[in-house]
C-alpha cells in the first residue's frame, strides 16, 4: 500500500523532487549573499514541487509559467527582463525610503569626500547611486577633500571615485543600490546612509 508501483505519479514526483534538490543544492552553492534574487521558470506543478524542497535563503522575485527547453538564452533574458525591472524598481524605492529615514536621523552624507572616508572605514550602511554616475578626482589626504578633475588620466587622479566608494562599501558589508538618473537631485547623484 502506498508504494511507487501502485501510483506512478508518486514515483514521477519523487524523481522531480530529487532533481530539484540537486538544482537547489547547486543554486545554494552559487549564491554568496542572503536574499539573492532568483527567477523561477517552469510549469505550475514543477514550481510547486521546487517550492517544497527549497532550502536556501534566496528571494524568488518572480515565477514565470512555461517550459524553457527550446528557448535560447536571449529569449529567456527577454522573458525575465520585466521581472528584473520590477525587482530593481522595488529595491530602489525601498532604498530611497531607508535613505530618507537616515536623513531624518542625521545619519547620512552627500559629500564625496565623506563618502570616500566613511566607506573605507566601514561606516557605510547603504550607498545609493544614480546609474552611470562617475567622477574623477584627486584626493588630498591632509585636508581630507577631493578636487574634481576633467581628465581622469592625469597623474595622481582616481579615475572613478564613485567606483572606489562602491567597492569599499561592499568590502565592509554595506549595500549598494542603483537608481534611475535624477532620483537623487538633492544629493547630486549619490548619497550614503551611515551605520553610526
Low-confidence stretches: none
Number of domains: 2
Class inferred from helices and paired strands: alpha/beta
Order of helices and strands: HEHEHEHEEEHEE
CATH topology of the largest domain: the name is: 60s Ribosomal Protein L30, Chain: A
The CATH C-level class name of the largest domain: Alpha Beta
> How much of the residues is beta strand, in percent?
15-25%
Chain-averaged pLDDT: 91
Q: Tell me the span between the first and last alpha carbons.
A: 63 Å
- Biggest sheet layout: 4 strands, mixed
Strand order of the largest sheet: 3-8-4-7
- Say how many strands there are: 8
Shape: elongated
The CATH superfamily of the largest domain bears the name Ribosomal protein L30/S12
Q: How many separate helices? A: 5
The CATH architecture of the largest domain is 2-Layer Sandwich
Helical fraction: 40-55%
Rg, Cα atoms, Å: 23 Å
What are the SSEs and their pairings?
Layout: H1 8-30, E1 36-42, H2 44-53, E2 58-65, H3 73-104, E3 108-109, H4 112-120, E4 124-130, E5 136-140, E6 145-149, H5 161-171, E7 175-179, E8 190-194
Parallel strand pairs: 1-2, 4-7
Antiparallel strand pairs: 3-8, 4-8, 5-6
